[in-house]
Write a structure and sequence with these properties.
globular; four-stranded antiparallel β-sheet; single chain; Neuraminidase; 324 residues; mainly beta
Length: 324
């Protein structure tokens, strides 16, 4: 469902969320509904291009599939660390229009296991999804589960974002956090990145434990992966094969999703100040505030549209990003 966001009322959320103290309730952002699929979003830059709120439950990540002209939205549908097999993935059209009457991939189905899906990536016909301590692969046409790579034996605790390298290697961040019965967050595990090649996982790089690495994306200008952390204001660059990641700048902290735009700037979300933040020339600048609990971004490079899942508001907003 696409709605005129001006008709929204302020919403309260009681969802269990990652680092809940980092983001309180915010006013909804005013905006308008989407335009016809495939058109350029020539609109007021202070208004969202489209807003989607139907059928979403704790949306964590959005991924754009340029080949099929589809947005995939992962929905935790409950608690991020809970193995309850009720997570699901929805498909949306280019402007946020609903495609499926039922979730495309649904943990509630007998032949699918999906607990709390987070980051996603595509290689060929396979949609890869981080699911607590397992990387799952699904056929992108049928939704059938085709691969299960268990990282629990490697003490993975909280697999978060997923990205695909040009050689088909899958990279997955492990934030390394755990949740107590009272909702408190601890960090008993490593903050690291796994690499999966040929169905086998290895530890690619370890970051400072307190960083709680979250988002990952390819930075062509540096020929390296760009990483952001939830518990640190730092941004890192990591070249494949390097023993360590290098700090290249700072931001507001509480970072979640990150993408690199067509003009080379990086754009990332922050729970610390409910923002979209731009990173360029080794410094960060706030692009937009008022986005409650913004999680893992999707990016349509052809239209310069970013999709921002609002974790606690159960909606996704599409925003046009002006190029420099």
């Amino acid at each position: 469902m696409i709605i005129d966001i001006r008709s929204l009322t302020r919403r309260a959320s009681a969802l269990f969320m990652l680092g809940a103290a980092a983001c309180g309730a915010k006013e909804d952002v005013p905006g308008t509904a989407g335009t016809t699929a495939g058109t350029s979003p020539a609109r007021d830059p202070n208004l969202p291009f489209a807003v989607v709120d139907a059928g979403l439950s704790t949306p964590e990540s959005v991924l754009w599939d340029a080949t099929r002209q589809v947005w995939y939205v992962s929905n935790i549908n409950g608690n991020p660390p809970q193995k309850d097999d009720n997570g699901y993935i929805l498909r949306l059209g280019p402007d946020g229009q609903k495609i499926d009457s039922l979730p495309f991939i649904n943990g509630a189905d007998a032949d699918v296991t999906l607990h709390a899906p987070k980051g996603m990536a595509l290689t060929g016909d396979t949609l890869w999804v981080a699911d607590i301590d397992v990387l799952r692969g699904f056929n992108v046409t049928s939704g059938t589960e085709v691969a299960t790579i268990d990282l629990a034996p490697m003490q993975a605790l909280f697999l978060n974002d997923v990205a695909a390298g040009s050689d088909g290697t899958i990279y997955i961040t492990d934030t390394g956090i755990a949740f107590g019965a009272d909702g408190s967050v601890s960090h008993p595990g490593k903050s690291r990145v796994f690499a999966v090649r040929g169905g086998k996982a290895s530890e690619a790089v370890v970051l400072p434990k307190e960083s709680a690495v979250n988002g990952i994306t390819w930075d062509a200008a540096r020929n390296a992966w760009l990483l952001v952390g939830y518990n640190s204001p730092n941004l890192w660059s990591w070249a494949v094969g390097a023993k360590e990641a290098t700090v290249i700048g700072t931001g507001p902290g509480g970072a979640d999703g990150v993408v690199v735009l067509t003009d080379g700037r990086a754009l990332y979300t922050s729970w610390a100040d409910s923002s979209l933040t731009v990173f360029a020339n080794d410094s960060s600048r706030t692009l937009r505030k008022g986005l409650p609990a913004p999680a893992d971004l999707g990016y349509d490079a052809a239209r310069n549209l970013v999709a921002v899942p609002l974790f606690t508001a159960n909606r996704v907003e599409l925003w046009s990003v002006e190029m420099k």
